[in-house]
Amino acid sequence: MANSSPASFLTQANAILRKNLTYQKRNIWSNVRLIMIPFYLCVVLVCIQALFDSQVNKSLDNQCGCKCIHKTGAEKCQMVCGVEYSTREQGVFCAIPKPQPWPPLILIPLPRYGAVDSNLTDVSCKQRNNCPVTILLTGRNQSLGATLSRNLLRRSFAMNYSDLLFSLADNVLATTYKGSPTNYLDAGIVSDRFIYNLQPRCTQNSNFSFSIGQPPLNFTKETRCVQGLNLWRNSSREINNEIFRGYYKGNPEGMINEFVAAYDLLDTNRTNFNVNIWYNATYLDDSGNRPPKLLRVPRLVNLVSNAYLQYLKVPRTKIVFEFVKEMPKPETKLRLDIASLIGAVFFTWVILLLFPVILTSLVYEKQQRLRIIMKMHGLGDGPYWMISYAYFLAISTLYVICLMIFGSAIGLKFFLLNDYSLHFVFYFLYINLQISIAFLASSAFSKVETASVVAYIYVFGSGLLGWFLFQFLIEELSFPRHWIFVMELYPGFSLFRGLYEFSQYAFQGNLTGRDGMKWKDLSNSSMDEVFYIIIVEWFFLLISAYYMDKMSSSGKGLLFYLKNPFEKFLSPQSPSLQNQVSAVSVEMDKLDVIQESEKVEKLMSERKTSHAIVCHKMKKVYSGRDGNPPKIAVQGLSLAVPSGECFGMLGPNGAGKTSFINMMTGLVKPTSGSAFVQGFDICMDMDRVYTSMGVCPQHDLLWETLSGREHLLFYGRLKNLKDSDLDQAVEESLRSVNLLRGGVADKPAGKYSGGMKRRLSVAISLIGSPKVVYMDEPSTGLDPASRMNLWTVIKRAKTNTAIILTTHSMEEAEFLCDRLGIFVDGRLQCIGNPKELKGRYGGSYVLTMTTAPEHEKDVEMLVQEVSPNAKKLYHIAGTQKFEIPKEEVRISQVFQAVEKAKRSFKVFAWGLADTTLEDVFIKVARSGQDFNVFS
């Protein structure tokens, strides 16, 4: 049953949604395998973490040390663990209920890097390793600065070993060790070979030794005196310049003048104590990290504070900085989450693996021309984009939700510590961007294989570049941050950056026992920057993808609005030659073609017409390539096809039939001329033309996994058929093309034979009773019985439909077509019904006679007697064929002549036939080609 109104937006959306869901149902196991990919990779990460835990986190070297204590008379021993049984590296993991107090130390440079004499010119101390420890001072009151400088370091001391820490507090002890994450075993005391004692001037008794700690963690340290040099500078700018020039840049041979510290006394006086302190916070430890420096800073504050108290002339008043120590702590364990550290590259690959799936799906529809065949049957761009986008978004969202569920279920800290909502929002934004990229990239590919290779190179290349290049640049603080922003404009790097931030927060959270990333950390982690980039790119690329799709579907180039101003001067033919050819063609045009052109001209002047198809002087020229001249495929075609007529297009290969069909179906735009279908211009209103059009292409364009019934349901919905009308139309279509037997209608189309696919394609083109149908060789590959049945269906369908049919079967053309047009080299050579064409171009009989070879001359003489103008078409092995003009002979004369010949010599076989449509086709085709060569 036909529905005159076109399908609405929602009806089209419903049709493609149902088709996609059915297609997805057919590919359920492919979806399951896709969803399981995150699970497999999460399991790989868990295995890597388990291996790392067994070899590193739970290694004996990374635990509190233990010792086997034998009991008297027992064979077994008891394991006792504690800091006293640990190495210095293991001690940090032990329970320390009573931390060891350590004398406060300041950080000094290595002797070979220290500043030189007071003029900073004598570098000989660097070879002797006895350069002074230099402290710079400045302020507004130089006399005050000189006083504080004299009071900064003590000139003499007396050791009291009964109260060791109190005695050491009177000395300025220093170390070259930068500090460690904790002070339970101070690296300056435990690991440094010497402890340095700063004095204004070193004497012979300036060195001393002391023992600290309880057995077995007791240490005897030798202190060596090093001169403390206090230098005044006139401004903080001078100090800043000297400190910067003395900054150690990793070149041992350079002229380094490092300083211990610098004090800016500002406006300090007797009633106001105001000081700024410089200290070196740029050192890196062996692993490239910046260890804590604040453990060494309090002693610097204590020095200047005591100097100020002495300046106030209260010599016996001082702040005794006796020791530093940590708070008590329980036993800890090494918790390095390697899965989080490498999770950035792993989950980059996991998320990006959706990209090849989406891209190949889009390119597959393009390669198999499924997109264009859907459009030809009335599917608009709006419903296609909305449903396709929502379809891929739903699959991608389910994918990332499963990723989060799998990762959390198997215990990955990457998911457990970071906020789930932050995870989801980040993934949701990125999969939208990824879908937009896939839509945009699909316009650049025409083959699935090429698109798949490029997509997987993008996937794995992005992960590897992110890991080995982008991550290195992020962590290199000297690399300009604005270039990091530029690199994040590449979608693969923006994804990696977000996952990198998640991994760092998860790693640190697991290490310290805190939570990972929360929404409040967004701005501190650069995630807000990544969010902005993804949102802007998503919007921009989605618009670009839609624009590119419209350009490719309309057949226009990206810069279609730019015209070549010299195009008319670059024509392969001069105007005079073109005029000559046009004049010749007009003179030699056949009367029937002229009449058709006049009819079209009259229809073009009318506002309304009953003709479903009207073509007016259509022309298609393909531009020349590789030095070849332009190819004229269709030359000034004028044609009118009323509703209820089947018009057959005949012609040799390359005659222009396919180019004409492609123009009428919107695949290519005509170079000039116009055409109207149901009153709509194919150049301006093709979307409205599609709503009343059906197409049976030369090659079957079907989904391999959808059944015949599901194909017809989909295209029936596009034709606005609903409910019982739709079911009835589908059943009638299946029955008419003989696809209801044996359950064939519900089998996947991929299992159909070639003939069954052809019948299904014809049924698709006719469902919904479209007003115009184009059929390109519809009966190709069918057996005689199926072909006759199909012809009957087509003949019944043309009642209210205009059908344009191309075929190479003359039998099919005679059976189906009300009128025929023969195309040769882009021109319509003749037009009319089959009987008229045979009468116009077939004014002769064909006589065939077979005799013995020695009687061939007798046969020729016999034919010449009957018709002097007869032409011999061919002869072979005694068989000869002659063309006899009808006006010269009657059929009875031929019979009498043959009977006379039988009495003279033996005639094995003979026959007289009228001209066939095939003879007309060959004759017209040859004459048309001869004309084109001449012209």
From TrEMBL:
Pfam families given in the database record: ABC2_membrane_3, ABC_tran, ABCA12_C
Segments passing through the bilayer: 34-52, 338-364, 384-412, 424-441, 453-474, 530-548
Any one Gene Ontology molecular-function term assigned to this protein's record: ATP binding
Keyword Kinase listed: no
Location relative to the cell: Membrane
Signal peptide residue numbers: none
CDD domains: ABC_subfamily_A (cd03263)
SMART domains in UniProt: AAA
Stated family: Belongs to the ABC transporter superfamily. ABCA family. CPR flippase (TC 3.A.1.211) subfamily.
Name assigned to this protein: ABC transporter domain-containing protein
